[in-house]
Design a protein that fits this description.
The complex is a heterodimer of chains A (266) and B (268). With 266 residues, chain A is mainly alpha-helical. Helices cover 77% and strands 0% of the residues of chain A. Chain A has helices spanning 2-8, 11-32, 43-55, 67-98, 100-113, 118-129, 133-157, 161-169, 177-208, 217-226, 230-258. In chain A, helix 4 runs parallel beside helix 7 (133-157) and helix 4 (67-98) packs across helix 10 (217-226). Chain A is globular. With 268 residues, chain B is an alpha/beta fold. Chain B has a single domain, classed as Rossmann fold. Chain B is built from seven helices and ten strands. Chain B has helices spanning 65-73, 112-122, 127-140, 156-169, 186-203, 214-220, 251-265; strands at 23-34, 37-49, 54-58, 80-85, 88-89, 97-100, 174-178, 206-211, 223-228, 233-239. In chain B, the strands form two sheets. Chain B has a six-stranded mixed beta sheet, sandwiched between helices. A four-stranded antiparallel beta sheet of chain B has the order 2-1-4-5, covered by helices on one side. Classes of the chains: A mainly alpha (266), B alpha/beta (268). At the A-B interface, helix 8 and helix 9 of A face strand 6 and helix 2 of B. Chain A: This is ABC transporter permease. Chain A: It is a multi-pass membrane protein.
Chain lengths: 266, 268
Amino acid sequence: MTALAARLGSPRQALLAVAAPILGILAWHVATSGPGYHLIPPPWDVAVQWWDLAFGGIWDDLYSATLGTHALASVMRVYGGFALAALVALPMGMLIGRIPVVRDLLDPSLQILRPIPVTAWLPLAMIVFGIGPRSAFFLVFLGAFYPILLNTIFGVRSVEGRLFEAAAMLGVSRQAVFWKVVLPASLPSIFTGLRLGLGFAWVVIVVGEMTGVQTGLGAIIMEARQLSRTEIVISGMVTIGVLGFLSDRAVQLLGRRLLRWSPQHG
Amino acid sequence: MGETMLAPTPAPGPAAETMLPILDIRHVGKRFAFGGETITALSDASLRIERGEFICLIGPSGCGKSTLLRMVAGFETASEGQLLMWGKPVAGPGPDRGMVFQDYGLFPWLTVSQNIAFGPIARGRPKSEAAATARRFVEMVGLTRFADAYPHQLSGGMKQRVAIARVLANDAEVVLMDEPFGALDAMTRERLQEELLEIWAKARLSIIFVTHAIEEAILLADRVVVMSPGPGRIIADERIALPRPRDPTGVEFNALRRHLSGLLGSLH
């Protein structure tokens, strides 16, 4: 109970956490309500639109009650691209971190590829993977890949030398050192990489879904923009924010469980 | 510490144990290449250590005492000479020579018990046996209440108790200690010195203990080996015949202290 309370923070903290969004919405309301034409719809219109998008029953147009489908499509792409990125980046990072030949072979190329923003890959992705979900998937993968890779390399390389000596004098064989020492010691960094990677996957989802897919939160945002349905644009943005926040929270909880031993995470 | 229970002492070495010292360090030297220069960290060090002896290596920094210890541990190889354990050359680190580091070197992701069970498990002992061993040694060092705590939750003295327990749980015959109490406060340090002597006496351990504190060396050791820098070498090997527990305020103790201070002081 006390642990849960500590996790949620004090009432004061909770109050402060909601104070900023409420003030923001108030300012938004004041700026967009009243006489005259506003390009940006007021918060209440967005709330109504969001409700219709989620559950229908208000406008009953093409978008009513479709939020679930779009959100699910985006979630699948985010987690799919993220999972694939983890699958490639984790072993690759461990090899680069542990084996000098692999490092010399791959590290310079990766350093050149890394600064290229995901958006710059968009045209090429569409040529290679075609218009559709595969390009979106690739871009999400790319967004999640580098944070996972770099943090894994860092984690594996920064294991304290003393721990290798301790393991050796306790009888750990050279082959077992990786599983017994390197992997557990680098878990906090790897975990940070995974968390950042998942965050980036959410960040690039809209770009990824600009590749002409039919469903997805990014897809409806782009489509609604062309139709000047700005309420839908904002509803999509809010949904991405909330889903990204929830998924980060879930990962953080998992981290606290797995890394109870680490003073930074426990 | 209370009643201590220890693993049965390992079977005595070869039949010729009576003749063979547990450690025989013969004319050992160590040179490092350092920026194109060769630095002699240790030169022509010889030392015979019998089973059950408590040796303190003492000397100013740069005298090669840690280098010598790390060579016995197998972390460094000798540039010349031979290091023999039970007559066989030391080849790399091994569980028969347990090291206690000044900075503990505990595995932060393992609890106290898991840290102590780590060695037995790494050497292929069944989990249940390793757990029983860990329980015994956790109790021996008085950390039963903290068996499930992680290292970052422990004080320095407690961490060093875990570090000692984990080499004993792993059947170390020789315990190598590199200024193990150097980072602890004076009271904790005194307590641990007493506890170490108790464990040493019961487990027939051989201990090489590196320190730069003269008093600590006289308090603990059967023999104090004095080393000098530039290049590192052994300059004296003094037997401390005082009965234990030793009284640091006693007359003989003070005479020894003066004698060793003189030896160390003449180095500058």
